[in-house]
Amino acid sequence: MSASETPDTPVRQAARRARTAAADLAPAPRTTRDAALLAIAEALTARADEIVAANAGDVAKARAAGTAESVVDRLTLTPERVAAIASDVRDVIALPDPVGEVQRGSTLPNGLELRQVRVPLGVVGIIYEARPNVTVDAAALCLKSGNAVLLRGSSSAHASNTALVAVLRDAVVKAGLPADVVQLVPGESRESVTELMRARGLVDVLIPRGGASLIKTVVEQSTVPVIETGTGNCHVYVDERADIDTALAILVNSKAQRPSVCNAAETVLVHAGIADTFLPRALEALAEAGVTVHGDSAWQTVAGTSGRTVLPATDEDWASEYLSYDIAAAVVPSLDAAVEHIRAWSSGHTEAIITADAAAARRFTALVDSAAVMVNASTRFTDGAQFGFGAEIGISTQKLHARGPMGLPELTSTKYVVTGDGHIRE
Amino acid sequence: MSASETPDTPVRQAARRARTAAADLAPAPRTTRDAALLAIAEALTARADEIVAANAGDVAKARAAGTAESVVDRLTLTPERVAAIASDVRDVIALPDPVGEVQRGSTLPNGLELRQVRVPLGVVGIIYEARPNVTVDAAALCLKSGNAVLLRGSSSAHASNTALVAVLRDAVVKAGLPADVVQLVPGESRESVTELMRARGLVDVLIPRGGASLIKTVVEQSTVPVIETGTGNCHVYVDERADIDTALAILVNSKAQRPSVCNAAETVLVHAGIADTFLPRALEALAEAGVTVHGDSAWQTVAGTSGRTVLPATDEDWASEYLSYDIAAAVVPSLDAAVEHIRAWSSGHTEAIITADAAAARRFTALVDSAAVMVNASTRFTDGAQFGFGAEIGISTQKLHARGPMGLPELTSTKYVVTGDGHIRE
């Protein structure tokens, strides 16, 4: 067994405790898991002062270190925010239970009864940045789906996460579950992340939530299976037969409604046949929304004649996930050329076509290979809550296991239960 | 783009050609894919002589190298075997098309229409051993599910695989598809396998088919997502309330019907309450089937009093996937102790319980976390054909994406298609 050859460390010990706890949690019925979630919601409210006090330490340190105010804001917990987190946990209780759902079943010709049943994954590791709400959110979704969770947040939120996890652990014990179904990964060093990524056989899946560089590191170094999430270089393609007003509204909404998130658009591609009409109006609408355009020569020419500024786009722009009020922009000779551009540069998150032409919509949705393809709708709709999943652990941009917004079913595996009465193979 | 920083090699070039071909293949309707499969079946029959001649070279080399006769047998192609392979391709044509199947769909409160649709994975890499039939079988399943395939067989079957892939490529072109939907990975060196494992972004999934050491290497070194297949340390647990004759029949069938395959049993666990009756009869039945028992002290004691030989079992035996006429054997004090043993040593493939007790069956299936759990049936039933899937690309022993026998749906991903009429987020 290769696991026993690896030197034991606090991280591996924690993973082993999670594994044992997961075995107890997996067969626990919904009532037990929901009771644990209710205990968590109640404890968060009851112990909000303690949590906010611990958080104040993290916030003071972050400010002293000159951290950007937007990051400090995400880090900050107030009594109101803790109450909102507790309310989110109550919402998770109400969601349908994925565990035990029969995916398919049949009686085989020899009389064997076959059932494929959803089961928890086991131990889920989450690596994330300085957002303490993720600590509770991820733990709640893992508990609901019967998984033990190993949480590895940012060291800048360590005091907050320690306080939150103490509350969570006390609450699950009250509901009769082992405390180790929820654990913070011990240690604040980089090595503890590396050990978590190497704990194959102890941890069933790692979900990195955060920036592109974090995700790239985990994907490249982890021997534990990874679900890649959240990198979104999303495209809006305005077809030759787009309604101009619809296209403008969707473009501006996709780009500027909330530029810092993964489902915001980063590139607009416009069919040459509509460029003369569309580009001047798009430049005006984007300027009004405060968006800087990085355009190809066609966009630059139109900008010149209409007195607007367009920065010249390079390959770096086509590849960029700006997450800011910037957009790359090109004119393409055809729908197929738009698809080619998307194939070359997209991260496979979300692409939208704006068109009144049914054949164009059909061709675009068939040829574009991304987690979500929008027809006459904003890229901003790729989201677990918007899709009606009630919860979201992340948005997968990979093709294995889960693709697109991941809800509770995506936190499960399956097993086959086969029942006979003495069946043997001839 | 990290891909462009990696030095270009023949393997990466092949993967890039596969990627381009996959984009053409993905939107091809079933009729085109089925026509390609029919052309393959016909070409295999028409060009059987050419294939058998190339294979004869591999076989001669293997014999000269002193290869075991069982391995030479698996390597060998005859006109009859080629005809059987062609017939298997015809069977794949008849299977339901997984591509385009709508997995779920709804109309969201805002009127957006959401559909989750099955799509091909893209480029599938298969790494396998000296069985030329896998070349055709894997290519046929990938084509049927709309995927381009990169085949990396054993160098000892290189001439056979080269001949087979030439036939396959000619056939798919005849059906109007690009030849590069089927490719042999260039090069026979270990480095070419390493390059394949590092072609993240070009190859969507790697499926290693073969021995435990091959699979371990791929799992540890690949940055391309891997589906682990086929390691089977399977257990038969004989409960206190088992019918003795049923238990004997299932035990012997699980172990000895075909010991060389992954769903054969490798360990038998017997409840202490039935050991006095069961062990002497089990020793007799296993001896008759030619099986060597590696037992704990209880089995050794019974062997002593009944004049049979039982080798002492060590931790190595509990961990072993013998794939031979050997079995590890222990007596356990309870069902829960059997579950503990399985949790400690199983590879998570298949475990069986033999019992007349409904509560014991229910507890065992709830607590055992393996791809398949059998109740009163042989472990040998964990198999795509037996499960009625009509085809099998392997048996997954991991929890992500696919678990247990993998048929055509497991060779697909999904995408969300979302249709509106100008929807934007407020």
From TrEMBL, chains A, B:
Describe the reaction catalysed, as an equation. Answer: L-glutamate 5-semialdehyde + phosphate + NADP(+) = L-glutamyl 5-phosphate + NADPH + H(+)
Q: Which domain of life is it from?
A: Bacteria
Subcellular location, record wording: Cytoplasm
Top EC class for this record:
oxidoreductase
Keyword list, A-Z: Amino-acid biosynthesis, Cytoplasm, NADP, Oxidoreductase, Proline biosynthesis
Tell me which family the UniProt entry assigns to this protein.
Belongs to the gamma-glutamyl phosphate reductase family.
- From the Swiss-Prot or TrEMBL record, give the protein name: Gamma-glutamyl phosphate reductase
Query: From what organism does this protein derive?
Result: Streptomyces oryzae
Q: Gene name on record?
A: proA
